[in-house]
Structure formats: structure tokens, C-alpha cells
Specification:
848 residues; 22-stranded antiparallel barrel; seven-stranded mixed beta sheet; disordered N terminus; mainly beta; elongated; single chain; 6 helices; 54% strand
């Protein structure tokens, strides 16, 4: 009896719970069907517009409810209102605020940037549309079916159509498709479009780029100068110093083609169209063993995109150049992309051009025309640059992709000097040309889900040549430096298990460098040509733990240089451990080498505008440069705060004094040595709503060691002890504003020991110097500003315009100082090179 008393209420509770669950788990049905059942049950008639109720699908109300209770239930679920027009007729009234097409905005979940050309499809129908440049879309039909959002770079998202039934067009977020072994530490680093990866690399997506102070466009190499540990002591991008290294110690690749020329206007502008690059990968340490021929950083630029993209392009102009790039879908499985840019400096003397001209050509043969009280010298210059690129992508079948890439870059300077002598006009013409031509063919094969192969065949040609006709005599000096770099790369990838990946490959490289000098009076000619062949075997194993906390990659590159009969063994390491979702630690290490380097043979090489020429190692006077580097870093991110700290040690052996740009007692020395760098890089960043603020600090202690020199240890020419950068960036929809500043300690400098030259020989006065690099130039400080605004013209086109100001405060800063003997007065002259003065630039771009 007691058991029955106990079971009775228990069964009642069970029936109640099951009944509630049955109600919760009832299947949703079309609102139209629900209204039809109510009409039959309660003998009423509904008046409605089919389109207004087409998207609703709900759990039907209980049959036991009254008519008014059922209407209240439906109104609560759908926000529809019901009004009795008579006892048996009921009007269904839609909310007027919701009387609009189903619409929304699609943005990146991390960067909040609009996602253009995303595909939106109503599942189960033939209807589809796409988002515009602002990520906005509209559906011209209303359906009960789910809506699917897809994009080649993002994970798919499926929602119910009722989720778009709101007062305003809602914002939907898509997650980027990320490679498991290259997940990101943060999606926004300094500004939108720059991410930091767990393998220690930085990735820049120009198409998603926000804004940085002083930049009007996502200039590849100018952006590098904002990253902690990367600087330029003379402001140019043809002299980037990564953790104290020289510019020639960086490896620059464009679609697998090595670039020996990185700047237009001799370093003030990137040699690559900033609106073309798709992905830029920067590695300061722990680089993949598939990268060789650099002892400093790697900058790998790829413009290859998916063949599924529709035809698009842009046309732009600023106060230095104009450019156009367009992508054409040539077939279902192929596309062609063209890009061209040319300066208008040879027929428009804008204020921007004049400031650039004054900055680059100061203290060179272009501006150092002899002043004479009797003879009036005149000069006139003509300068322009251009670059052109072509990329063709063909998807041969579901497993094979073919890419063909071509690029050409050119700088041309011509100037003439004239004087009137004995009523006769004497004119002499001089010229300087830099030219790059490169090509690459890539074949990618996906054998299956676990095995892929890639083969690259490439060639890169670079030449710089000048002709200098002296106005004082009939002497003509011709100089030339030419490089031809060709090779083949093979890479295989094998997914051995869920957490293990093995990469292996082979590279063959042939590089030849020719140097040529000729003088007509007295007759002198010198031609030097060197060629080196190298063979590299590569292996790399990558591991990711099940919980994704541990990620590591260990690689090895074994290179044999045929002519030098030398083996080079180069291990690489990437190690990352996630203590939590907010705190990461990384260890990066590498050993690298390079056989190419730039030297300064004479300070007036190539009219003094470009003093460096490329040479090859011979293991006699020019050794193979080798480096060892290790760094330990920590990253903390939480609540839109980002803090990073990297401590590093770097040692580079086999450098020659001619490659370091000395302008003191070591200027004409030919001695070999090394340099070591110990430093720290720090960044703190905060994102608040549409604002991003950051402060970076880099400390380096960088010292030379030349054992054969009397003072064997002294500061490196490119040492910057303290480097501070800061910026405040506003980025919201169509408007972007950035203001920031850069301060760093002046570069090392060597002062004369006496105000008068030393006459060791009667006709050859020399300058006596103090200890090398025993003082420093004045500190560098510059403030910059940028802004841009976008105007939508149509669904797939917009107009972008803006302006920038470099050196906003017009600070007059000495960035280089050297000394020379004035033989007329037997005195020592100080030659100062000044930073770029306040310079305005503006741009206008049409995207379609």
C-alpha cells in the first residue's frame, strides 16, 4: 500500500515531465498550416499576405488553448499582430518596422572588416546572391528554407531565415579558414590586416589593411618598419635593418622570385604595387628550412588567388604615380591578373616629388654641381619609374593548379649639366637605371587529402648601370652591376597522422654576378664575373598536440656549394606552448647562411645615388656569411589587450667591412669580421570599440668585432639602442584615421680627431678620426598622419580617397654625417644628410 502511495505521485510527475518534453520536442511546422488548422477548429478566416508569413515555422500551440490564447502565442513567437475585423474574420498585421527585404552585413569575426563577394544561397532553391564591398546583402525572396553563407577564405555559416527578420539589417560574422599549424596569436597586430601567427611570423593582408600613420596605401615595405625589431636608419625601404642586420641580409620573394630591388625613387617608395599583394609573410627568426640565402629576415609575398573570384580591379592616382590593376576570369577554371604603375614625375613637379627629390639626391653627383664665380653651371634632371606584373592561374583539374608569374621593375634617372665657355654651350648627359625582370612557374598537385607536391622554376634578373660624363673634362665613367638568379624548387607535404606532418624537398640554384667599370680617359676597364651553384636537401617535421597547446616544427637544410666545395648544415626550430587561451610562449632558433652581399666599392658608385653593388662569396676575400639566432617570446591577450615580449640573441659571422657602409677610417678597408646583437622587443596594444592604440619599444646592443683592426670591438653602424613607436588608429566602416610618432636614438658616428687634415703624403691629405662610432647623431623624431574615406558607388564599386602627412612637425633631423677634405682650403668639411621634410601626399582610388 505504501509502495502504491509512493508510485502514484511519481508517475504523475513523470507524465508531466514527459508531456513537457513532448511539447518542447514537437516539430516546427509552417505558420500557414497552423493558421489553416485554427480556421477549421474555431470557424474563423485569416486575411494575410503570403510573403509576410512565408518565413515563419514554429511549434504549433496546444489544441486545448482558446482562440485568443493561440493568437497571443503566435504573436509572441512571430511578432505578428492579429485584429478582428468581424466576429469570424481576422486580419494578420505585419510590423511596419520589419516590412523590408531580408538583409544583413557580413563581417570577419576577428577584424570586423566587411567580407565582399561572399555567396548567399537559400538552401533548396536556385536563388543566390552575393555581398557587396561593404559586406551588405539583400534577399529578393522570402522562404522558410535556411540561408547558407560561404566564402573561399571563410568557414560556412547556415542560419534560419527568421534570424534576418529584425528592425535593422543584422551583422553576421564568418570565421576565417585557418591552417591548424599556423593559427593566429591575434588577428589585429598594430592595425587591421596584420596578424601574428603562433609560429612567430607576421602576415599582412593588404585587401583587409587598416591604416598606419604616414601611409596612404598598404605599402609592403613601409609597413615592415612599424613592426618591432625592424627599422631604417635613413628612412628608406632599400635599407631595412632587421634586428641590426643590413638590408642585403634580408630575403625578399615575390611569388617565388627573389627580388634584389625593393624600392622606387631609390628607396622612398615600395617597388611593388601596394594594391596587388594578397598575402605577405614576414619571418624574423625560426624561418622554414625551405628559405635559404639570408641571415636576417624573410619577406615572402604571394599574389596568387583562387580562380573562383569574379572579375575586379582598381585604378588609382597619388602625387607621385598612377596605377591600375585588374583581374579577369578568363574561364571557369582560370584567371589573369595584370598590374601596372608609373610615376608622373617626369612631367608633373608636385610638392611631394620635390621633397622626395631633395631627400634622395642631396650630397650626390646629381646636386653637387661645382660652383664657380666665373662659370655658371646649369643642370636639369628627368626621373621616372614604373613596374608591371602579370599572374595567370589555371586549375587544370580538381588536383592540379598551374601559376605563371612575371614582374618587371624600372627606375630611370637622366640629368644633364651645361656651361657656357667662350660663347660656346657645353652640355654633358649622365644617366642611372635600375631594372628588374623576373618569372616563375608553379605547379601544385594534390595527390590526395594527405599528400601534396609543389614545383617551382624561377629566374630573376637585376641590373644597375650608370654613365657619368664630367662637365669639367671629357672623362666618361661607365659602371654596371648585374645579377642572374635561376633555380628549381621541389616541395612535398605528407600528413602522416592527425598531429604529424612531414615536409621534404630539394632546391637547385645558380647565381651569377657581373661587375663592370670603364673609364675613357685614362683608359681603364674592369670586368669581373662570378657564378655559384648550390644544391639543398630539406626536411621538416611539424607536430601539434591533441589539445592544441603544443605546436612545434623542427627543420633541417643541408646545402652544398659546388665551386666553394663547402657543406652548410642549417637547423631550424619553432616551438610554441599555450599555457591558456590568453598566454603563449615561443622559442625560435635558426642557423642560416648567404653567398650574396652588397658592398660599397667607391662612395661615388652609380653617381653616388646608389653606392652598393652585389658580389658573390669566394671564401678568400669575401667569405660566406653565416648566422645563429635564438629568441624567447611571450604573448598575453585578453579583453582586447595585447602584450608581446621577445628577447633575442643574434650572431653573424663572415661580414666584410665593405658591406657595412663605413664613412670613417674603415671606408676603404677590406677586412672581415662579425657582429653580435642582444635585444628585446615589446608591444602593448589596446582595442576599444573602433579605436586601436599601441606602443612599441625595441632595445638592441649591436657590436662589431674586427680582429685585424686596432679597435676590434665597437658599435655597429646600424645600432639603434632605443626605438619607440606609438599610434592611435580609428577605423569604422568608411572612415580611417591614424596618427603616430617614431623616436629612436641617433645612429653611431665617428668624429675627426682634428679640425685640419693630416698630410702623411704632401699631395694626399687625409682625415684623422677618433675611435670608430664613439659618438651618436642627434635623436630621430617624426610624427605622421593619415586618413582615408570610402564612398560606395554601387554594389561592387566604391571610391576611396585620402591624404597623409609625413614629418608633421617638420623636424629638421640629421640622419647621416660624414667628413671630406676640401683641397682648395686644406680644411675638413662636414657633410650632413637630412631626413625628409614635411611632405603631403594624397590619393584617389576607384575599386570595381
Amino acid at each position: 500500500m505504501k509502495i502504491k502511495k509512493f508510485l502514484a505521485p511519481l508517475l504523475l510527475c513523470l507524465v508531466f515531465i514527459l508531456g513537457a518534453n513532448a511539447q518542447d520536442k514537437s516539430e516546427t511546422i509552417l505558420l500557414l498550416k497552423i493558421l489553416e488548422k485554427i480556421e477549421q477548429k474555431h470557424d474563423v478566416k485569416f486575411n494575410y499576405i503570403d510573403e509576410e508569413i512565408a518565413i515563419f515555422k514554429i511549434i504549433p500551440p496546444k489544441n486545448s488553448l482558446t482562440l485568443n490564447e493561440k493568437l497571443d502565442y503566435i504573436s509572441d513567437k512571430t511578432r505578428l499582430k492579429f485584429q478582428f475585423t468581424s466576429k469570424s474574420y481576422i486580419a494578420v498585421i505585419n510590423n511596419k518596422d520589419l516590412d523590408k527585404p531580408l538583409c544583413g552585413f557580413i563581417v570577419d569575426v576577428f577584424s570586423n572588416q566587411p567580407i565582399a563577394y561572399a555567396n548567399i544561397k537559400v538552401v533548396g532553391t536556385n536563388y543566390s546572391t552575393s555581398s557587396n564591398e561593404n559586406g551588405y546583402f539583400e534577399l529578393n525572396i522570402k522562404s522558410i528554407n535556411p540561408i547558407e553563407f560561404s566564402h573561399v577564405n571563410y568557414e560556412k555559416l547556415t542560419i534560419q531565415s527568421i534570424e534576418l527578420y529584425t528592425n535593422k539589417c543584422p551583422t553576421l560574422t564568418l570565421k576565417p579558414i585557418l591552417n591548424e599549424l599556423s593559427e593566429v596569436v591575434t588577428q589585429t597586430y598594430l592595425t587591421k590586416g596584420i596578424t601574428k601567427k603562433l609560429d612567430g611570423t607576421f602576415e599582412i593582408k593588404p585587401k583587409k589593411f587598416g591604416l598606419l600613420p604616414g601611409l596612404i596605401e598598404p605599402d609592403v615595405f613601409e609597413t615592415l618598419k612599424q613592426i618591432p625589431g625592424i627599422a631604417s636608419t635613413d628612412e628608406t625601404i632599400s635599407n631595412l635593418n632587421v634586428r641590426g642586420g643590413t638590408h642585403d641580409q634580408n630575403l625578399f620573394l615575390w611569388n617565388g622570385i627573389r627580388l634584389f630591388q625593393t624600392g622606387h625613387f631609390f628607396g622612398l617608395i615600395s617597388a611593388l604595387n601596394p594594391n596587388l599583394a594578397n598575402t605577405i609573410k614576414i619571418t624574423k627568426n625560426g624561418s622554414s628550412p625551405f628559405y635559404g640565402e639570408s641571415v636576417s629576415s624573410v619577406v615572402d609575398i604571394s599574389t596568387n588567388k583562387s580562380t573562383s573570384e569574379e572579375t575586379n580591379g582598381s585604378i588609382g592616382v597619388n602625387m607621385i604615380s598612377a596605377d591600375v590593376n585588374a583581374k579577369f576570369k578568363t574561364s571557369k577554371n582560370s584567371n589573369l591578373e595584370l598590374s601596372a604603375r608609373r610615376s608622373h614625375t617626369d612631367f608633373i613637379n608636385s610638392p611631394t616629388y620635390k621633397n622626395y627629390y631633395n631627400r634622395i639626391f642631396q650630397n650626390t653627383a646629381v646636386t653637387n654641381i661645382t660652383n664657380d664665380q666665373v662659370i655658371n653651371y646649369m643642370n636639369n634632371e628627368d626621373f621616372y619609374f614604373y613596374d608591371f606584373s602579370l599572374q595567370f592561374n589555371q586549375k587544370i583539374n580538381s588536383k592540379i593548379d598551374l601559376n605563371v608569374d612575371l614582374i618587371t621593375i624600372n627606375n630611370l634617372l637622366e640629368f644633364n649639366e651645361s656651361k657656357e665657355e667662350n660663347s660656346i654651350l657645353i652640355a654633358k648627359n649622365s644617366s642611372l637605371e635600375q631594372h628588374t625582370l623576373g618569372g616563375n612557374t608553379t605547379l601544385k598537385v594534390n595527390w590526395n587529402k594527405k599528400n601534396q607536391s609543389e614545383i617551382n622554376i624561377y629566374a630573376s634578373y637585376y641590373t644597375i648601370e650608370s654613365e657619368n660624363e664630367s662637365i669639367q673634362s671629357n672623362q666618361i665613367l661607365n659602371q654596371e652591376n648585374t645579377i642572374l638568379d635561376t633555380g628549381i624548387k621541389i616541395k612535398n607535404s605528407h600528413q602522416m597522422a592527425t598531429n604529424w606532418k612531414f615536409n621534404n624537398g630539394y632546391q637547385f640554384n645558380e647565381i651569377g654576378i657581373r661587375n663592370f667599370d670603364r673609364i675613357n680617359s685614362p683608359i681603364f676597364s674592369r670586368r669581373i664575373k662570378d657564378v655559384l651553384h648550390s644544391h639543398s636537401l630539406i626536411g621538416e617535421i611539424m607536430y601539434s598536440s591533441e589539445n592544441k597547446k603544443l605546436r612545434t616544427a623542427i627543420g633541417l637544410r643541408q646545402t652544398y656549394i659546388t665551386q666553394l666545395e663547402e657543406y652548410l648544415l642549417e637547423p631550424r626550430l619553432q616551438f610554441n606552448y599555450s599555457f591558456s587561451k590568453s598566454f603563449f610562449a615561443e622559442i625560435l632558433a635558426e642557423r642560416k647562411s648567404q653567398v650574396t652581399s652588397q658592398i660599397v666599392d667607391l662612395q661615388q658608385d652609380f653617381l653616388g645615388v646608389e653606392k652598393r653593388r652585389w658580389i658573390l662569396a669566394n671564401n678568400e676575400t669575401i667569405p660566406v656569411v653565416k648566422s645563429n639566432q635564438v629568441s624567447v617570446g611571450f604573448t598575453f591577450k585578453k579583453n582586447n589587450w595585447l602584450l608581446t615580449l621577445d628577447n633575442f640573441y643574434k650572431s653573424v659571422n663572415g661580414i666584410t667591412s665593405m658591406s657595412q657602409g663605413f664613412q670613417n677610417q674603415l671606408e676603404f678597408s677590406r677586412i672581415n669580421g662579425k657582429y653580435t646583437v642582444l635585444g628585446s622587443e615589446f608591444l602593448i596594444q589596446k582595442q576599444l570599440y573602433n579605436f586601436t592604440a599601441w606602443l612599441s619599444y625595441t632595445y638592441t646592443n649591436n657590436n662589431y668585432n674586427f680582429e685585424s683592426f686596432s679597435t676590434n670591438a665597437f658599435p655597429n653602424n646600424y645600432e639603434i639602442n632605443h626605438n619607440v613607436g606609438m599610434a592611435l588608429i580609428y577605423d569604422y566602416q568608411k572612415l580611417k584615421i591614424a596618427i603616430g610618432s617614431r623616436w629612436f636614438t641617433g645612429k653611431p658616428n665617428t668624429l675627426p680627431s682634428n679640425s685640419l687634415p693630416i698630410f702623411n703624403t704632401p699631395n694626399n691629405p687625409e682625415i684623422g678620426y677618433q675611435e670608430p662610432n664613439s659618438t651618436n647623431l642627434e635623436d630621430y623624431f617624426q610624427m605622421n598622419f593619415s586618413s582615408s574615406y570610402k564612398i560606395s558607388i554601387s554594389e561592387k564599386s566604391n571610391l576611396l580617397f585620402g591624404f597623409s602627412v609625413q614629418n608633421l612637425l617638420d623636424s629638421k633631423i640629421i640622419i647621416n654625417q660624414n667628413y671630406r677634405v676640401n683641397t682648395n682650403t686644406n680644411s675638413i668639411e662636414q657633410v650632413n644628410t637630412f631626413a625628409l621634410e614635411r611632405t603631403f601626399n594624397a590619393f584617389l582610388r576607384y575599386n570595381f
